[in-house]
Amino acid sequence: MEAMFETRSLSSLAKVFPDEELKEEAFLKASAFLNETYTFQVAYRQKESRMHKVKIRVEGKLSDLVEVRAVGLVPSELPVYHDHDENVLRTTPGLYPDPLHPLENGKLPAPPNQWRSAWVTVELNEELASGIYPIKVIFETESGEQLGEEIFELELLTIALPEQKLINTHWFHSDCLATQYNVEVFSEKHWQLIDRYIQTAAKHGMNMLLTPLFTPPLDTEVGGERPTVQLVEVEKTEDGYRFDFNKLTRWIEMATERGIKYIEFSHLFTQWGANHAPKIIASENGETSKIFGWETDAAGEEYKAFLAEFLPALIDYIKEQRLEESVYFHVSDEPNLSNLDSYKQASEIIHHYLSEFPIIDALSDYQFYEKGLVKNPIPANDHIGSFIENDVPDLWTYYCCAQNQKVSNRFFAFPSARNRISGIQFYKFNITGFLHWGYNFWNSQLSKRQIDPFHVTDADLAFPSGDAFLVYPGEEGPIESIRMEVFYEALQDLRALQLLEKLAGREQVLEIIESSLAQSLTFTEYPHDSRWLLIIREKINKKITELSIKEKIK
Fold this sequence. Notes:
With 554 residues, the protein is an alpha/beta fold. It has 2 domains: 5-157, Immunoglobulins (Immunoglobulin-like, Sandwich); 167-500, Alpha-Beta Barrel (TIM Barrel). The protein is built from 12 helices and 24 strands. The longest helix has 24 residues, at 530-553. It starts with a strand and ends with a helix.
């Protein structure tokens, strides 16, 4: 007799689509360390057309540490570009699993004959004892009749992972918070939203925060403007300029309190060429107006004179606040060789004042570094080869919409394993930092209009869905995504690998990673099977446990 309600426990790396049969085999047990966040899924399908919701509850000693969310579906009109590779789940437009919705009264949506998924998160802590903890996930009708259950066994290892070393930034678009929630920029409501979104970011391993000294000149149409989000108040006087850093102080203190360790000051020149100044607003004789922007020549004397006053004042502020080890600067985002001269001029201005601080920029042509135009280059993960070959120290990497062939990325249409593999790649190549442009970019391409992220996931057919944002706007704060959770798992993998290196040495860690591979792991060559990632992580956990016991016996 055909079951009317089906369930299957799955790893976090599965993506459950409502219109196809489950492909992934059952995943029923795993191990985790004391201070990890562990996630798995339980897929379910009901065939009783009169029932539209089911109740879900969790039993077990860890139940107080468990949160269950509903994996929601959102549309994608542009899942991939035309020149995608074969490591994709789908290429067709349609509904894709991504947002993780909090439950309403413990209920999940259950439309008939559709596979759906419950996302189970276990927030472990260092007060727990080691051992195997069964987690029973029970499905019931709204009247309380049991429909099905799954039991997942989580083995808790009494070891804590080390603190995250990787510097990790996903660009925080504070203007999008103001427009999406229809609040005034830097009103108390806006500050509350900023706080909540920072808190969620930090909880998922984002320890660097894009900080808008002036409105960031990012993804803006030439001649267009994004809403003003300027933390430094500027007053134009007869003698020059005065600067008020009070809002900046509030921003940094809030970020630090939430766990942010690094402050990433916004770009001081426009994107894709460094030809102009960012939008800067100043007051003069009680009147507020724009003093710099698209009409400003980046190499012109007026903007140079402004920077000659502003940057020394900012340096004094940094030193007063004891932020010397925490701040990073940008010149201009994503220049190419055709912009070499304009970038060189802008870079020389910035380096004249800021040579004692790290200056980072996303750029993928090695000549920019070779010519000394950037101290800390951030090449894309599909252009990182020449930087690795030349032993560039403290190397970062990034990806965005263009990185759609062979390398890891986080598009809806990509397998989650293609997202999570980053952690192992970061380890092997000693990556210092990771940058992504979209934590919450809820605009169309070039910010021509605001979009609804629950209905437009590709920036108006510009970027494959999943590129522009990691979080969705909930009523009071962020709704997280599968992609965000999986990338955090990659960061936890990295921390586990670093812990094992401390216990066994780097050679043994690389041996565990590569012993089962036909060829050495790179940014473009890696196993596509999610099972490989899950098995490797269990091997790492087992080896750490063995060596830790030996250390204790000594």
